[in-house]
Amino acid sequence: MAKICMKFIVSGVVQGVGFRYYTCHEGNKRGITGYAKNLNNGDVEVIACGDEVLVESLHEWLKKGPRSSVVNNLVSEQVEFKAHQGFRIEY
C-alpha cells in the first residue's frame, strides 16, 4: 500500500467541542500518525500520514466529525511524507 501524508483544514464549530480529541482517537484507531491542532482563526488543522486507504477513511470521517461538532468546510492537500510518533493533539 502507498504511504501518504495529507493536511486537512476543518472549518465550522470545531473548537471547544472535543474535535481534536475525537480526531486523535479516530487516527489511532486506524493506525495512522499525525496530529490535530487548533488554529487561531477557529479552524482545526489535521495532519494524517499512513496507508492511503486509511488516510482516506479519516478524510471521510472528518467531513462530519464527532456529533458535538458542525463541519462547514474541509480543505485537503497532499504534503510531503513525514514519520510521526503516533497520532496526537498539538497545542
UniProtKB/TrEMBL annotation:
This is Acylphosphatase. Its EC number is 3.6.1.7. One of its GO terms (molecular function) is acylphosphatase activity. It comes from the Bacteria. Residues 5-91 form the Acylphosphatase-like domain. The active site is at R20, N38. Belongs to the acylphosphatase family. Keywords: Hydrolase. It comes from Vibrio algarum. Gene3D superfamilies: 3.30.70.100. The gene is yccX. It catalyses: an acyl phosphate + H2O = a carboxylate + phosphate + H(+). Pfam families: Acylphosphatase.
